[in-house]
């Protein structure tokens, strides 16, 4: 799932490519992905991009008419730059293509250039969750309006983080870090990495002593800040590989922990998994996996 660092880098990459470019058309091939109807998607035709930004895990593209194209990539969505005119699509709603933006020729292009470059919004999943909005203000998107603070913002102090954790009470810290209403932009992967860096169990209660809060806050800022720096300047086509390379425990079940050498373990939920190091995070004790326990599997 694209999270804060990847969407930040994607916005920077698209901002450089799109700013000043005029939209020829935007075709939506997965109708269920378009969540708004007023303004219509055709209102983007003939407008020029003025910038690209991020709020939480949302990509926010702005045009000169004042409209915003907001894309939430969900679990398996992505934006792919296209250098040339697109081939005809196989049909509405078929395959991973959800939407396609076609641009007019760039101002510096040759007179005989046909244009047609742009970007495709895709989703590689059978259960479609990707969401596209055309709005006059990003806060009109409910999933943006309800977001918590940005964890790398100046206003996200250790004191504010402590208050968020105290309010969450006995809730498991893994879920609290992933809750977009509490903190924006952190998903499954980076919550694994933050907890590993903090040497804290994913099942630890959110309400914790001040020393633990300080350790977790430092880990959060270090992991996310480092990921943003590593992704800076990386092209959209390489961001997923860069994310994978930077992970210490997430997605590395069965590998050796780079810190202590213990085996990275996995816990399976109904629709997701997470990874952790027992040596670093739980005093060497494996966490209970309810799914595997019901199947009679020993770890």
TrEMBL record:
CDD domains attached to this UniProt entry: BaFpgNei_N_1 (cd08973)
Residue intervals of the Formamidopyrimidine-DNA glycosylase catalytic domain: 2-153
An example molecular function term from Gene Ontology annotations: 8-oxo-7,8-dihydroguanine DNA N-glycosylase activity
SMART domains in UniProt: Fapy_DNA_glyco (SM00898), H2TH (SM01232)
Domain FPG-type span(s) in chain numbering: 248-282
Origin superkingdom: Bacteria
InterPro entries reported for this sequence: FPG_cat, FPG_N, H2TH_FPG, Ribosomal_uS13-like_H2TH, Znf_DNA_glyclase/AP_lyase
Catalysed reaction, written as an equation: Hydrolysis of DNA containing ring-opened 7-methylguanine residues, releasing 2,6-diamino-4-hydroxy-5-(N-methyl)formamidopyrimidine
Keyword Cell cycle: no
SUPFAM superfamilies: Glucocorticoid receptor-like (DNA-binding domain), N-terminal domain of MutM-like DNA repair proteins, S13-like H2TH domain
Iron-sulfur listed as a keyword: no
GO biological process, one term: base-excision repair
Protein keywords: DNA damage, DNA repair, DNA-binding, Glycosidase, Hydrolase, Lyase, Metal-binding, Multifunctional enzyme, Zinc, Zinc-finger
PANTHER family associated with the record: FORMAMIDOPYRIMIDINE-DNA GLYCOSYLASE
Family (UniProt): Belongs to the FPG family.
Full protein name: Formamidopyrimidine-DNA glycosylase
């Amino acid at each position: 799932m694209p999270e804060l660092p990847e969407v930040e880098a994607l916005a920077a990459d698209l901002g450089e490519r799109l700013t000043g470019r005029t939209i020829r058309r935007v075709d939506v091939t997965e109708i269920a992905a378009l969540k708004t109807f007023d303004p219509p998607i055709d209102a983007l035709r003939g407008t020029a991009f003025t910038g690209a930004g991020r709020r939480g895990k949302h990509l926010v593209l702005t045009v000169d008419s004042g409209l915003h194209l907001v894309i939430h990539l969900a679990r398996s969505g992505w934006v792919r730059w296209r250098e040339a005119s697109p081939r005809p699509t196989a049909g509405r709603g078929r395959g991973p293509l959800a939407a396609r933006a076609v641009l007019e020729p760039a101002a510096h292009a040759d007179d005989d250039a046909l244009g047609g470059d742009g970007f495709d919004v895709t989703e590689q999943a059978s259960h479609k969750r990707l969401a596209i909005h055309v709005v006059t203000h990003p806060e009109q998107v409910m999933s943006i309006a309800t977001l918590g603070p940005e964890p790398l913002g100046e206003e996200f102090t250790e004191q504010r983080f402590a208050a968020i954790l105290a309010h969450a009470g006995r809730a498991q810290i893994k879920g609290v870090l992933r809750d977009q209403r509490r903190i924006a932009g952190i998903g499954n992967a980076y919550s694994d990495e933050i907890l590993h860096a903090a040497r804290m169990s994913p099942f630890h209660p959110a309400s914790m002593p001040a020393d633990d809060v300080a350790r977790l806050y430092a880990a959060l800022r270090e992991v996310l800040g480092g990921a943003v720096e590593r992704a800076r300047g990386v092209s959209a086509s390489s961001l997923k590989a860069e994310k994978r390379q930077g992970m210490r425990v997430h997605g590395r079940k069965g590998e050796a922990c780079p810190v202590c050498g213990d085996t990275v373990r996995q816990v399976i939920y109904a629709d997701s998994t997470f990874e952790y190091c027992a040596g670093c995070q739980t005093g060497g004790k494996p966490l209970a996996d309810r799914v595997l326990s019901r199947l009679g599997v020993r770890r």
